[in-house]
Amino acid sequence: MILQRLFLLILCLLGLNCEAQDYPNKPIRLIVPFATGGGNDAVARVVAQQLGVELKQSVIVENRPGAGGAVGAETAARSAADGYTLFLGGVGSLSVNPNLFSKLPYDPIKDFEPIILIASAPSVLVVYPAFAATDVRSLIALAKKDPGKINFASNGNGSSAHIAAVMFTTQSGVDLVHVPYKGLAPALNDLLVGRVDLMFSSIVAIIPQIQAGKLRALAVTGKHRAPLLPEVPTLAEAGLPDYQAGSWYGLLAPAGTPQDILSKIQAASTRVLTQESVRAQLVSEGAEAIGGSSAEFAAHIQSEYQRMHTVIRDGRIQMD
């Protein structure tokens, strides 16, 4: 034991980083940039619980909603780079917002150290039951027959629902009218009574209405069919081979966090994401566990940033 401590002391004196030797020795906070109850929060809590077990220290979810995720992102970016603040970033905070807003209080690339891509979650395209189109091909045909007549709801300009719909119109070559709402609830209420024609939504948020026959699911937006809606085809199956949209969630730390600490968190997160119980919990939340290296996650962020830049530019998406 004495020799081991002496060896560690020598390493530290030589300038090697010894911070991870006793990391973590206090609770870790995981900042979620949205309120409780949504997809981000659900994924964070599934992962935080088991990550705490792996690291032998509590991982406490801290919700910091506001400004479309910017408040939480800034809080995380400005925190000490010591491994005791983590951030659950996603397509909104890391890819969409930087392309929508000219001034953000954080830089999605420079202010964070990517650790691991946690999960992805497709959306679902739904229409109200009396709507004339019964599948994606008939929807496209109907929209092309009468351009500008069919509309779609979203929970606001620049939202994931808005972006998914813009991607659909661009790739299918149809003209749909955007009807933005202040939140999911009013958009869903109007869709249920046919005041609007269709909407893209997270699966978990809308699956009760689908199962009750109050809405008809035409397609999901992921690479493959969703476990919660196995009978619903993907948009690729329905004739749009390049279509892919939805949410994704990843774990990041403030820039400058020591590499040995990042590696320790990445390894622990990898073990968490291979647990069948965790993967099943994520499926129940409409998500799929991903994992991978920090370098792969960094490349994913860059790729998604560029992809969203093209979608937002070509779709002429602007904030109010």
Automatic annotation (TrEMBL):
Top-rank taxon, per record: Bacteria
Keyword Transferase attributed: no
Pfam families in UniProt: TctC
SUPFAM superfamilies, per database record: Periplasmic binding protein-like II (SSF53850)
Record carries keyword Signal: yes
Family as reported in the entry's similarity comment: Belongs to the UPF0065 (bug) family.
Descriptive protein name: Tripartite-type tricarboxylate transporter receptor subunit TctC
Protein species of origin: Jezberella montanilacus
